[in-house]
Structure formats: C-alpha cells, structure tokens
Recover the amino acids of this structure.
C-alpha cells in the first residue's frame, strides 16, 4: 500500500512540476511579447506607417513599398516575392478594414537595434489576415509577415 501511495504522489508531483514549467514558459513568452515601445518611437506614427504598408500591399504598389524599406528588405522584396504576397492577399477578396492594431518594442539580438513591431488584423471580404510589420527608428520597413 505504501508503494502505491508513493507512486501516486510521484505521479502528482511530476504533473505539478510539468504544469509549473508550462506556466513559466507561457509567462516568459507573454513578457517577451509585451516589450514596451522605445521612447525613440511615436506610437501613432508607427501605426500610421503600418496602415500605409497595408494600403501599399492592397494597391500592389511595389515601388512604394520598396521606397520605404531598409536595405535588407529592399533586397528581400523581389518582384517574385511581391507577386506571391499580392496573390496571397488577393485570395482574401476586397479589403474592408483594419480591425485591430497593437504596437510593441523589440531589440534585435545580433545588431542590438531597437525596432517597433506592429501586429495588425486586417479584414477582407473572404479572409482576415494578421500582418506583422517591423520598423527601424528611421521608420524604414525592416520586416513584413502575414498569415
């Protein structure tokens, strides 16, 4: 009987330690996602710039997008890549509105550069896309992802 009780306690302890680990990881991830925007950025300006990026995509304005990119993004956003982005977004139908937008700060680990990251939920007639748009302090487009 003692052996059975010990096994039961060990099993509960393992479950509890697993739960504690999961909670710790979730809190760590939440903390990482909730970084404050650097004082070097104006949140309203960042939001307007993100709206502009979404409008440029909706209008399939490749030149406009490339004009606001940093060097790395200019190289990454080739005509083929942009064509695929436009096709993917086109599957959503006509753009309706930006439903929500949140802004956070991020520091690039390798370059130590502070960036502004916008997560915008955009509603189209068929689908809703989530855009993750990153800007440098000079308000250059440094990252673009959608799903």
């Amino acid at each position: 009987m003692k052996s059975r009780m010990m096994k039961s306690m060990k099993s509960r302890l393992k479950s509890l330690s697993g739960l504690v680990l999961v909670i710790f990881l979730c809190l760590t991830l939440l903390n990482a996602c909730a970084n404050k925007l650097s004082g070097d950025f104006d949140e309203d300006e960042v939001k307007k710039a993100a709206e502009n990026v979404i409008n440029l995509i909706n209008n399939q304005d490749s030149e406009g997008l490339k004009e606001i990119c940093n060097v790395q993004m200019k190289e990454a956003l080739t005509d083929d890549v942009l064509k695929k982005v436009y096709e993917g977004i086109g599957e959503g139908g006509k753009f309706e509105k930006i439903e929500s937008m949140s802004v956070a700060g991020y520091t690039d680990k390798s370059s130590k550069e502070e960036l502004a990251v916008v997560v915008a939920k955009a509603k189209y007639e068929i689908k809703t896309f989530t855009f993750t748009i990153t800007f440098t302090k000079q308000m250059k487009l440094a990252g673009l992802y959608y799903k």
About this structure: The beta strands are 95-107, 114-124, 128-135, 141-146.
